[in-house]
Structure formats: structure tokens, C-alpha cells
From TrEMBL:
InterPro entries: CRAL-TRIO_dom (IPR001251), CRAL-TRIO_dom_sf (IPR036865), Rho_GEF_signaling-related (IPR052231)
Record-given protein name: Pleckstrin homology domain-containing family G member 4B
Transmembrane segments: none
Species of the source: Pterocles gutturalis
Origin: domain of life: Eukaryota
Length: 213
């Protein structure tokens, strides 16, 4: 939910985490994750691109991270607007910078605040933005579950509509009777579909809970 001073969504990556030791934490997965994060904000915010803040204090980033940035620049140049690399002033390490896009090394919180206000940074970065990653993950999982249900129901309804629209007009009364029976059965299947029934019964309450969260 954080924004930089230009209104771009901020993705914060912390290098001090044992997750980087996981073999599944590779370039391919990082590209997928960054594309997913870019898809979350509203369209007008997506168009601005992500500002990626890499907190590399006391721990150097893995090479796979910069490789993921480079791949993303080739895949979608508008996905990442710029990368901010926050490091200790006396920390030196070799890195492969992305070939395109803005890339800046920051050595102090003062230099970071030129790009992102402290009210938009979490406590770990001396900010005041309230954030709990566990709560965010729980919220996203609930939202994704609802989205998948809606998408599945939408595809089912589109298939039913296509069946009706693609049907030929009957030439004889017998054919008309068969067609009516088929359409009645189709409507029965639609009205009794478990996905639609569940969305009708639980969708409103789930949306209300998500809004509250």
C-alpha cells in the first residue's frame, strides 16, 4: 500500500531473510512475484511502474535478484520504473545493474526519504507506516480465493450463453420442443451451479469482511 513521492507503488525487498537460501527462490520465481505485485495496484498506478526498494544493509543481494530485474526490463519495460538499493555507507560488493530503468544506490535514510516519505515506510526503515506481512498474505489469499470463484463462475456463465446464442432456430415443432427442453435443463444447471450458489450466499459477507480488513 505504500507510495513514493511520485505516486508509484513501492515494493520493499529485504535481503536479510533466510528465504533467500531456499532453492525455490530463483530468478524465475522472482520474476513471477514482481509481475504479480505489479498487477495488484489500480490500473492508473500500474501504468507508473513499480519503485523497488531493496534493503541491502548488512547483507548483499543475491545475483538472482538483479538478473530478475534485467529479465523484467526485457519482458515489460513499464513494470519497474526504478530500483533503490539501500546499503551501509562502508559496505562494498559487486553487483550487476539492470540494463535499463533508473537505478540508484542509497547510503543513508536521508537519501531514501528524498524518494519515499517516512510516513510511507514501515518501522524497519524508520518509518511510521503500519504493516504486517502475515496479515497482508492472509488478506491476499482470501481475495484470490474470491477472485478465482468469480472467474470460474463467469467462465461457466459465458459457456452457457454461448450455447444459447450458437443454437439454430428449429424448423419443426418437434425440434422446438427438444430445444426448449434443452434450454430448461441448461437454466436449471445454471441456477443450481454450486459456484454461483456459493457466491450468492457468501459473496456479500466475504466482500464486507475484506472491506473491513
Amino acid at each position: 500500500g505504500t507510495r513514493d513521492k511520485s505516486g508509484r507503488a513501492v515494493a520493499i525487498i529485504t535481503t536479510r531473510n533466510t528465504a533467500w537460501l531456499n532453492p525455490h527462490c530463483n530468478t524465475t520465481e522472482l520474476v513471477r512475484l514482481l509481475l504479480y505485485l505489479h498487477s495488484i495496484p489500480r490500473p492508473e498506478c500500474q501504468a507508473l511502474g513499480l519503485t523497488v526498494l531493496v534493503d541491502a544493509r548488512r547483507c548483499s543481494p543475491v545475483p538472482a535478484l538483479f538478473k530478475a530485474f534485467s529479465i523484467l526490463q526485457d519482458m515489460d519495460p513499464h513494470c519497474i520504473h526504478g530500483v533503490l538499493l539501500l546499503v551501509e555507507r562502508d559496505l562494498t560488493f559487486r553487483m550487476e545493474k539492470p540494463p535499463a530503468g533508473q537505478f540508484e544506490v542509497l547510503t543513508s535514510m536521508k537519501s531514501l526519504h528524498k524518494h519515499i516519505d517516512s510516513s510511507q515506510l514501515p518501522l524497519e526503515l524508520d518509518g511510521t507506516f503500519p504493516y504486517c506481512h502475515r496479515d497482508w498474505l492472509s488478506f491476499r489469499m482470501k481475495l484470490e480465493h474470491l477472485l478465482q470463484g468469480c472467474q470460474g463462475a463467469c467462465a461457466f456463465l459465458q459457456g452457457a450463453i454461448h450455447k444459447v446464442e450458437s443454437g439454430k432456430l428449429p424448423e419443426r415443432a418437434e425440434e422446438a420442443a427438444v430445444l426448449l427442453r434443452n434450454y430448461r435443463q441448461l437454466m436449471k444447471n445454471v441456477l443450481e451451479d454450486a459456484r454461483l450458489v456459493r457466491l450468492q450466499l457468501e459473496g456479500g459477507a466475504l466482500l464486507a469482511r475484506l472491506r473491513k480488513e
